[in-house]
Structure formats: structure tokens, C-alpha cells
Amino acid sequence: xxxxxxxxxxxxxxxxxxxxxxxxxxxxxxxxxxxxxxxxxxxxxxxxxxxxxxxxxxxxxxxxxxxxxxxxxxxxxxxxxxxxxxxxxxxxxxxxxxxxxxxxxxxxxxxxxxxxxxxxxxxxxxxxxxxxxxxxxxxxxxxxxxxxxxxxxxxxxxxxxxxxxxxxxxxxxxxxxxxxxxxxxxxxxxxxxxxxxxxxxxxxxxxxxxxxxxxxxxxxxxxxxxxxxxxxxxxxxxxxxxxxxxxxxxxxxxxxxxxxxxx
Length: 263
Known about the structure:
Elements: E1 7-10, E2 29-34, E3 43-44, E4 50-51, H1 53-65, E5 68-73, H2 78-85, E6 90-91, H3 99-104, E7 105-107, E8 112-114, E9 116-121, E10 137-139, H4 144-156, E11 161-163, H5 167-175, E12 181-185, H6 186-193, E13 199-204, E14 209-211, E15 214-216, H7 222-235, H8 237-246
Helix pairs in contact: 1-7
């Protein structure tokens, strides 16, 4: 399949031969909404295959549930409606748990903690948020990055907000001079620095974002997925996935290392 395929099918191995799908998943398929263009969480590799931390994690969850995983690719903001319409049974895409989201959806226990950041062109000379006064900035709609930008726009005097679908489009706008800074999740921005020396992350925003799998409210899969994530942490498989994508094991006591309560 090509990177432009609407739906990417990735089959998880059936590790539990006796596993029985939950009600609504009688076909043994777990339909998961996600995005691309979000390294290292999810993206298409040079061969057109879906890859990333979240992809490996969800494939392992599907294997342990005895279900095949089918990924449905869509813009981030469309994940919420797709869950509510029953188009998908779960969503994963570095999704931050927030009180508003938790009132509408179920979440698994968190599996990653991070913060947000701001990236600029290294040659721009911009080195602080205050230097963005009156300047156009970029962000992806529907994200907690957008929420932070809007909540702090008056404080820092940001100019127009330009929206993009994914970090690659945002960085294209940045390089073209259409925006002066791009706001995104810190791991995604730092991952870009490994490939591009023309970028500079100038700010680590004071947020404590917790990522989790999002499901419809009252989903019969919520507890099963949560237990699978807890098991992944206990048996070391989560640490292996973390090491693969970040080059080191998770910090002791972090949400990537120890089981936690669901939000």
C-alpha cells in the first residue's frame, strides 16, 4: 500500500488463542484512529508502512487482546467525532488527557508524560515567547497546543494563528516564512532537531501532558486495553518500545514504566 492510502491495515498476531472479542468487536478487529506526520509517534516509513511508538504499542495491545488492529488515518481533530459516531473503537496519537476530553470519552491509564514546546528557524534570531509579539504563529487545530496558544495569546501578544495538519506542514510554513514559530508537543519537535540543524526549540512550555488511548464513553474495551497496558509496563515490553523510539528506557517511576490508575 502507498503512503496516501486512506486505510492502513496492520494485522496483530493472535497470542491468546482463547481470547473472545468484546461486544461490538465480534469480527475480531480493533479499529483504531490515528494520524500520520507525527514522528516518532506515528508516521509512514520510506516503504509506505505505518510506524512509530504509538503504532508499536497499539499492535502489542491488539496481540494481547487476540484482535487484529486496523488503523484509520484522519486529521487529529476528526478523531473525536469518529469515536462518537462509532467509526472507530479507539484512538491513539499522542493524545493528551484533559478534563474536557475525559468528560466525553474513556481513557486508558497514561503511558507517557511530557510537555509542549515552541520551534523557530535558527537563523530568525527569535529566542523567547515575548519576541513573538505581533508575529504569526502555527499550530495544529484541535490539539492542546492550540488550547495553550489561545489561552496565552493576549499575554504574549501573538499575531495571527495559522493552522496546519501535522508537524511537517507546520515546519514547511515556518521555513517559508509564513509563520514565525510553530507550537507542538516537545518530543515531536526534538525529534525534528535530530534531522534538521536549521531549527531551534526556544521554549519548553509549563505543561504536564499525559498521553493515553482514547475510547468511546463506556466502551467494553476500555478495561481490557487498560489491563494490557499495565501488563506491558510490568513485563518490560513498554520499556522495549520506549528504547526503540527514544534510544533509552523510560525514567523509573514515569507513566511509561509503572502501572497507573485510569483518569
